[in-house]
Amino acid sequence: MKTLSLFLLTIFLSKGCSNQTQNDLANSVVQYTADSRGFHLKIIITNKKASIFQGRGTENPSQEIVIPNEQWNEMVTEFQKINLEQIPNLKDPSQKRFHDGAAIANFKIRYQDKNYETVAFDHGNPPAEIEKLVKSIVALAVKE
Fold it and tell me: N or C: which end of the chain has fewer CB within 10 A?
């Protein structure tokens, strides 16, 4: 009986620990920015909502959208795959931004009172580890 109780307790505790370590997009703030001389894009994701800023100044007001459930679920899945501690160490796959070949992009996550930020990378060519999430975030700003 003691063995069975110990076994069940071990399983229960291990499941509880794994759920705590899983990234939670709903309780995070994700920000993507891309800038160049003639281009500005800023997208902030907070719990199924996106604030999109395109262009600079007051003539370009922000747009607030509710993220569709299917797209939100895809984003949650990709977010859970990310190792947050490794975000600052991600390698930029190209350097076109050094000669105005691409806008300079940054990706930031605020999760459990900690900030995680990538090094700058080319807009449209994020590090492979965050590529799917970044592309789904940028897709929110594409006007149909």
Answer: C
| CA-closest candidate to residue 91, choices 117, 119, 116 | 119
Which residues does 143 contact at the CB level (< 8 Å), separation at least 6? Answer: none
Residue 60: phi and psi, rounded to 5, are: -120, 80
Tens digit of each residue's pLDDT (9 = 90 or more) over 83-129: 999 999 999 888 888 887 899 999 999 999 999 999 999 999 999 99
Q: What are phi and psi of 34, to 5 degrees?
A: -140, 130
The answer to whether the CB of 130 falls within 8 A of the CB of 82 is yes
| 104-111 and 28-36 beta bridge pairing | antiparallel
The closest alpha carbon to 43, from 114, 121, 107, belongs to 107
Judge contact between 126 and 135, C-beta under 8 A.
yes
Residue 9 CA to residue 57 CA, distance in Å, equals 58
* CA-wise closest residue to 45 among 120, 126, 138, 117: 138
Q: Give pTM, 2 decimals.
A: 0.79
| Residue whose tokens read 């997009």 | 25
d(CA 100, CA 107): 19
